[in-house]
């Protein structure tokens, strides 16, 4: 049994920093709680360096009885999650500075980030459930961090749905264990084809329910608008971005490694879920006037596009690299839009952004890049990500799904332009208070994320192939 702890340096760095931060924060005066934020950022940087070294030296391996896989998907997912976590930390500096529970905020953020990393490398059903819980429980507390009415309601809905789908996921794990007499993916791949069809189908749907909840996909999407609106803006940015990365990579690994030879027609199921998710997200976004709810439904629609890669996970080699690149581009673009929202805390509706362009031309430029990037406009990263994932869908035999995704992409332009139009064309400006900036950190985060979104699009030819590689059994 390989018990090489060095293979888990990124996860250990986040959890270690969380423990050290919690202890240190108990003794630090309130005005110096920022030290824990520096510790959190340092843990992310350490994880990035360790991941880069692992990928360069090509040290692919499975550890702890093959329950955790360190391969191309894990390495790329770690880079995306840790870089995104750094952006979330950046936009969180001003909102939590001097808060009486500042240390707890950073600790919870580190713990849920570690859970996301665990989801990415999970190679066993029990590991998958444990990672789900580690990702979820700290996020529930973060959603209610402000302790106001909206945040408390959001956290309650988030927790109740998370508990429901968590129990469902655990039940599905039990059913798949009963069917395949194992929880390790490579063992299930050998035993599930001979198992009863109905038992495997019900178990798969139950496990999938938990992953759909984390990703914010239909039919487990109901929490997304409420949490995005009620939680602090940086927390909303986190829950609409990072858990998706963990859930989608985990789902891809589950299908590719455990269910590749199963007689259950899960590709069609995923194709239908992808179609319904992208369409519902877009239709619901059309009528939104609250910018956070608009971004929430935008996040749901984006999951629909990403689920296309899972539908063709075993049908084409393009699926993995298109999924990983799209996740990286989406993380940068979505966090850039949320960083602008964080920087302008008093601008809650589309009308509040009237005349924002002349007052904050830099932030307006980031908003243009990120919102048009979410549509899939060149030369942003999501444009190339959509091109890759649509190509994978066609290559995998789902041309109808790719055509529907193109139609949804064109339709989504409407509600993003509803936000951008008053920024530059409105003759009457919103009150100056609506455009009052929060501080430098959120603005710097917005500029960084917007630049990353463009850079991924321009350097896509170099970045996309990095996601190519076999998953370890």
Can you give me a brief rundown of this structure?
The protein has 473 residues and is an all-alpha fold.
Describe the structure.
The chain is an all-alpha fold. It has a domain at 265-473. It is 73% helix and 1% strand. It contains 20 helices and 2 strands. The chain has helices at 9-25, 34-57, 72-96, 102-121, 125-143, 149-180, 185-191, 197-215, 223-230, 233-239, 242-258, 266-285, 291-311, 318-343, 356-359, 361-375, 381-395, 399-425, 440-458, 460-463, and strands spanning 61-63, 68-70. A two-stranded antiparallel ribbon has the order 1-2. α3 (72-96) packs antiparallel against α10 (233-239), α6 packs across α7 (185-191) and α17 runs antiparallel to α18 (399-425). The longest helix has 32 residues, at 149-180. The chain is globular, with a radius of gyration of 21 Å. The model has no long low-confidence stretch (mean pLDDT 93).
Q: Helices, strands, pairings?
A:
Layout: H1 9-25, H2 34-57, E1 61-63, E2 68-70, H3 72-96, H4 102-121, H5 125-143, H6 149-180, H7 185-191, H8 197-215, H9 223-230, H10 233-239, H11 242-258, H12 266-285, H13 291-311, H14 318-343, H15 356-359, H16 361-375, H17 381-395, H18 399-425, H19 440-458, H20 460-463
Antiparallel strand pairs: 1-2
Helix pairs in contact: 1-2, 1-4, 2-3, 2-4, 3-4, 3-10, 3-11, 3-14, 3-19, 4-5, 4-11, 5-6, 6-7, 6-8, 6-9, 8-11, 9-10, 9-13, 10-14, 11-13, 11-14, 12-13, 12-18, 13-14, 13-17, 13-18, 14-16, 14-17, 14-19, 16-18, 16-19, 17-18, 17-19
